[in-house]
Amino acid sequence: MTESAIKQQHPSIQLLIFVGIIAGIIGAGYIIGAGVVIAVFGVNTLVEIAQLNLNDPHAAEGLWIMQIVSTTIPIFAAAFIFAKYVVKDTGGYLRTSFKFPWFLMVIIFCVMLMSAPLIEGLANINQKLQLPDFLSGLQKWMRDTEDQAQKLTTILLQMKSAGSMIFKLLVVGLFTAVVEEFMFRGCIQTILLKWTKSPHAAVWIAATLFSAFHLEFFGFLPRLMLGVLFGYFVLWSGSIWTSVWAHFINNGTAVIVSYLYQNKMISINPDDTHVFNLPVYLFSLIIILFLLYLCRNMAMGKLKMPFK
Fold first, then answer.
1. Where is the CAAX prenyl protease 2/Lysostaphin resistance protein A-like domain positioned along the sequence (predicted)?
2. Buried-most residue among 10, 158, 206, 221 (CB within 10 A)?
3. Positive or negative CA dihedral for 249, 250, 253, 255?
4. Residue 191 sits in the same domain as residue 70
5. Are residues 100 and 210 in the same domain?
6. How far apart are the first and last CA of the chain?
């Protein structure tokens, strides 16, 4: 298919092409990752990883290989290949421009810092949601999937040294932020914007897909909110790096707090969802709305940048 033919295709077709590329590359990545694990640790380790057996001495190393080779690299490759070689518009789809006020990154940092209470409140609401009785089987599957995801996260975020923490800060914090933002706020949000002609619809639909992609249904609402924040950062600034920065702050904070808790440097459990209370949730919401107002106006040139 020629370049002009691709660009003339309806965005729904572009989305199908992109999903097909992702599925194909992730499938190939899984086969390669499994082969590497078998070659390095043996087939038994691969079986134990599939069962999320924490007792296997090589479970963590094998999981990291599978995570990087079958997910992280393929998602980045899919977004890059689609933008550069399929639609041949890397800048238009991945939005890699650095042309935005630098102080925007400071505001975004404050937004992410103040979002912690609101994310906790949404998580608590999400945990209480119950499906009707006739969907009890679906709810059990959702809960089992959530427990598996939590178990996977526990294995991946085991950190006994500062070096291990830095490695995971780079992979979980930075690399994951880059690849997921290229995929969702880059390719998918741009395709949806062309399809719906509505910036708000594109942001919210992309955020919904982003949250669903993680298969953590009882954490759907807080991740949806994060996806919406990331989406508006890109929409207002025109740059993917604003959402990568926000995503990195969110993931990186989780890594650092987990490291500090595991090594008994802090007493706050990162899995505790009852750190804040209702007044703090409301205060968090008000401050975030104010900061988003500043963010939008600065990104759109309606607010002068301080210290210029």
1. 165-252
2. 206
3. negative
4. no
5. yes
6. 48
